Amino acid sequence: MKVLFVTPELFPLVKTGGLADVSGVLPLALARLGMDVKVLLPAYPGVLERLESAVPVASVDDLFGGPARLVAGRTATGVAVFAIDAPHLFARPGNPYLGPDGKDRLDNPQRFAALGWLGAEIGLGRLLDWHPDVVHAHDWHAGLAPAYLALAGARRPATVQTIHNVAFQGNFPARLLRALRLPPSAFSIEGVEFYGQIGFLKAGLHFADHITTVSPTYAREIQTPEHGMGLDGLLRHRTKQLTGILNGIDEMTWNPARDPHIPSRYRGTKLANKAPNKAALQERLGLDRSVEGPLFCVVSRLAYQKGLDLVLAALPDLLAAGGQLALLGTGEAGLEAEFRAAAAAAPDRVACVLDYDERLSHLFQAGADAIIMPSRFEPCGLTQLYAQRYGTLPIVSCVGGLADTVIDASEAALNDGVATGFQFAPPTATALGLVLSRTFDLFAQPAAWRRVQRRAMTREVGWQRPAERYAALYRRLVSSTGRAAADGGEADVEV
Ligand code: ADP
């Protein structure tokens, strides 16, 4: 089985969020199941240099305004990559999507249409000898790949569109239709049109044989007006072809027993060895090491979605109860300023690192006692999975993947020894305040806290099981899309 991932991010080459982790590790887990997975990715600056055994394998005269090469290679972690070397589209330093002014790059429609276009060209067997059975598009950036494939009217591979976050949709002016190589007939409800614009994610959701998203709860939520962001109607219409498959984590990179980025490695059986990491984190951040209360942390994009304004609202009570807070994050200027001010007002109790620092995020995970994720919505969330592996108890709002991956320390769960963290609902400052006082109560009972830590650390959070579900989906799609491609019908796949 050959599968082409089409994605705008891949760890360790380029990462702005969880999607990069998924594209970087799921292919390796699928390879362990015998699948041949290759990843199509734009060659942003530095990508080609970091590819091992890079060789050009194809060229295109005009890829949306300039020539391009396809360069095959491998990441240091072993993922097979086709990098799109198109300097006129991708040779821009900094964030892959935003210009130096912090706004979306003006030619993002062309840049990511090019990604989808090449995904389709490979899928149709026009570019390489390698012909995938499945083209798997990730997020809106790849959403035109299933559309180009379906519109080509030729025999094509099966297609899957994954929603990593329905809030990011890639909607662009209708006048770009021709420039994006879409036929006028595609501009309809039964096509790429979305509220008068061209919707990249809408296109993927309409044309793909199957849709997945990254947790079962999020799969249900996005079919409601409250969380569907305008796409809920289409998702309800396609409910039989929509599956939630939880993300896993890279258990090699995120393993407290082997982590090279933390000063003291530890296991669930020797939790005393976690303590020096707390001291190191406090020291690094200038926090008072004599405080005995819990050290809470946040590792997150600073965005409305993540509900971090609720942390600011709960902060006075958190400090009054004897806690400390350490934040690692970048994002909205207003939130950055408020956290900076909170740290300035109590530098021995609150610290913020307004930066993106992958290595430091490991020390945060190892050093903190608990991590706060008060998201208003959360498709899956990875941070709470890392935290559980590190015995750092997650305090999460009960939405999306957070609802599916944390077992709340209720009386019943504590008695049965299955609790792995704390959940609260709704995502409000009041509810966060209440769950924080439950956290303080448990922290005051060290033996009970350790039991929850140990349970959290032994949860199965790897990619094995999710990969098996993707593999089953691909197999069923491939066996049924011969029919779909021939008669235009839709594959109806139960996973
Ligand atoms: P999202 O994809 O919505 O940002 P996830 O929880 O799925 O949220 O994934 C976030 C990923 O980005 C995690 O791997 C997390 O550790 C990482 N991350 C977020 N902010 C930072 C930061 N400031 N420094 C280092 N890593 C970060």
Summarize the structure.
The longest helix is centred in the C-terminal third of the chain and has 24 residues, at 464-487. This protein has a nine-stranded mixed β-sheet with strand order 3-4-5-2-1-6-7-11-12, with helices on both faces. Strands 15-14-13-16-17-18 form a six-stranded parallel β-sheet, sandwiched between helices. Strands 8-10-9 form a three-stranded antiparallel β-sheet. It has helices at 18-32, 47-50, 87-90, 108-123, 144-151, 200-207, 216-221, 225-228, 232-237, 275-285, 308-320, 333-345, 358-367, 383-389, 400-405, 411-416, 429-443, 446-457, 464-487, and strands spanning 2-6, 36-42, 52-60, 68-74, 80-85, 134-138, 158-163, 171-173, 193-194, 197-199, 210-213, 242-244, 295-302, 324-331, 350-353, 370-373, 393-397, 422-424.
Number of helices: 19
Which range best describes the helical content: under 10%, 10-25%, 25-40%, 40-55%, 55-70% or over 70%? 25-40%
**Which CATH first-tier class of the largest domain would you pick?**
Alpha Beta
Please outline the major beta sheet: 9 strands, mixed
Bound small molecules, which ones? adenosine-5'-diphosphate
The tally of strands reads: 18
CATH architectural grouping of the largest domain = 3-Layer(aba) Sandwich
Outline, from the CA principal axes?
globular
The averaged pLDDT comes out at 95
Strand arrangement in the largest pleated sheet: 3-4-5-2-1-6-7-11-12
Radius of gyration: 23 Å
Low-confidence stretches: 483-494
Number of domains: 2
Could you tell me how far the N terminus lies from the C terminus, measured between alpha carbons in angstroms?
17 Å
CATH topology of the largest domain: Rossmann fold
CATH superfamily of the largest domain: Glycogen Phosphorylase B
Helix/strand class: alpha/beta
Beta-strand content estimate: 15-25%
